[in-house]
Write the structure tokens for this entry.
Amino acid sequence: MGVTTRLGLFALGLVAVFAAMFGVGSVVGPLLPEGAAQQGATGTTDGDTGPEHGDGASHTDH
């Protein structure tokens, strides 16, 4: 088996593994910390007024 064939099979194996892991990740979904889903459901921002609220400050200004 030549070098080109071995590299091709290696690349094909990588594609197969990444495709399988992408499929598993799509089925399982994101794994969030325990309280993250409840915080997102409340809709509060805890006083965080970022650039999306128009104050012009970036997160690197802190």
Notes: The mean pLDDT is 78. The chain is about 55% helix and 0% strand. The radius of gyration is 22 Å.
